[in-house]
Amino acid sequence: MSAPADFRRCPLVLVLLLLFFLVLLALHFPLLGLPYFWDEAGYYIPAARDLLLHGSLIPHSSISNAHPPLVMAYLALVWKLLGSTPTVTRTAMLGVAAFALLGIFLLAERVASLEVAIASTISTALYPVFFTESSFAQLDLAAAAFTFWGILAYLEGRRWRTALWFSLGVLSKETAILAPLALWLCRLGLGRRSTATPGDPQAAPPDGPFPEIRLSRGDGWPLWLPVVPLVFWYAYHWHQTGFIFGNPEFLRYNLTATLQPTRILLAFGMRLWQLLGYMNLYVLTAATLLAWQLPPLSDQGRQRPRIALDVQFSFLSVIVAYVLAMSVLGGAVLVRYLLPAIPLLMILSMSTLRRRVRAWPWAVAIVTLGLVLALIFNPPYGFSIEDNFAYRDYILLHRRAESWLEMRYPTARVLTAWPASDELTRPYLGYVTRPLHVLRIEDFTAQQLFAATEIPDGFDLALVFSTKYQSPYRWLERYRIWQQWETQFFGYHRDVPPRVAAQILGGRLVYEDEKKGQWVGIIVLERIEQARVTGRPPATPP
343 preceded by cis ω (within 30°)? Predict the structure, then answer.
């Protein structure tokens, strides 16, 4: 595409960006005022706040994880202009999500067709993990957005744009370097060979998707250039903190502790499930596999074109790179780490459906319905509560309980676990109006609660909650070996319910709430209750 054509298309692109943003804003409108959730509250919001208040790229209120600062800088700038409320933050992140959807749309249109672009964009927007991440102040969606734009520029032969978009990606999150390096390796494997030959009935028409990648083997510098800003960032982080890849505990949790063959194989299987089946993606996978059994359709005597094989290999190289790398990296096997890869697979699948299924819009409708159902209803297996509307249930449960706690026991010493420990001590997260005194434990297993009874200075009450979603079906938990693997490699534990926790701690359950498998409870020690009745201060434990 020539420069004048780019210029003429610019207004249309801006209109599409505004349209995507307004649609996302309407869909997320009831969720915009929710307090910050989980990793938002634990790291990204405090890091952005430190940047806003102190101008520091290295957070002070949280231990640095060495994540590049672009998203936090973006939020700090938005807060500077509009204020640092959750509504402003979530609206700003919806702008990033709209930019990502625009990249998906233009990429799918460029390599396939307008119909495939529309189907891919809708399915991506309604995919539960993308939907929830759209308003979260986290890094993965921004990294995915720049990755989509980088791939588009790469396939169009735009060298400097390729380098720019991928560089912004790695400055959003360091793992975004996987995409350009995967494309470079794919380019080495493909060489300059075109997979479409003149006269091939399956080849794309000249005015349609291009038949080969335009970068030659010796033209890979745009794919390597993003390494430079990443190296500079890590050098700066090492100069400021003495650590290159974050604090030692972060490095241990996300890398050194994961380098075990059994864990890598298990994580690889989990990543394949997340890519092909998780949150009703198995509907799309099954539809694609069935479509492959059908012959290509013809329009006016000409077969519907497929995505050029070079492009398919490029997409698959990025997908494989993320699945393999994320089977090794990351202590938590979170689906959001695959956000740069899953929409690429959706584009390939939607193209296959259009090429081989005459009633393909109905197939897309069924796939989309499955994604919407997964967004609303919890699946019959274990999942991360950030991956569908379960995160809203968590926030509402905690906001009600912690507001109740603050109103009745504002000076109490509260025993709890993360992330409630941050929610109670950082009012700007949106749960309490003033900080409470907190004693933190790891979780609410019986072992941790029994250990808490031995705390020398004691505590006044405990805020207990479900730290993991427990599926009522427990398909794999029936097998002892799976329980052993989950505990050893993935931090699995079972929180005791509130009434059992009250018995262990020697207190009385005064507040309990539950919604769709998640729960929260407040336990008051008996001496605190006696003090409220008699008006005398509680006795200090020996």
Answer: no
- Structure-block tokens of residue 56: 């520091």
Cα 326 to Cα 332: distance, rounded to the nearest angstrom? 10
Q: Please answer whether residues 313 and 114 qualify as being in contact, where contact means their C-beta atoms are separated by less than 8 angstroms.
A: no
In angstroms, the CA 399 to CA 312 distance is: 46
Alpha-carbon Rg for the chain, nearest whole angstrom, is 25
The predicted-structure confidence for 181-203, as pLDDT tens digits, reads as follows: 999 999 888 764 444 433 344 44
Q: Contact 140/330 with Cβ under 8 angstroms? A: no
CA 94 to chain centre: 14
Residue 540 lies in a domain: no
- Tell me: do 175 and 249 sit in the same domain: yes
Residue 458 placed within a domain: yes
Instruction: List beta partners, residue 416.
Output: 440
Could you give the count of Cα atoms lying within 13 Å of 503 in the half-sphere of its Cβ? Answer: 6
Q: Could you give the residue ranges of the DSSP H alpha helices within 134-177?
A: 140-155, 159-172
Let me know whether 357 and 396 are in one domain: no
* Residues 33 and 179 placed together within one structural domain of the fold: yes
Domain membership flag for residue 266: yes
**Domain-ending residue, one of 386, 405, 430:** 386
The domain of 475 spans: 389-534
Per residue in 444-480, pLDDT (tens digit) is 999 999 999 998 778 999 999 999 998 877 777 677 8
Q: Is the peptide bond before 472 cis (omega within 30 degrees of 0)?
A: no
And the tokens for 31?
């969720």
* Domain C-terminal end among 358, 386, 414: 386
Terminal CA-to-CA distance of the chain, rounded, Å? 78
What's the CA gap between 425 and 434, in Å, rounded? 7
Q: How many domains does the chain have?
A: 2
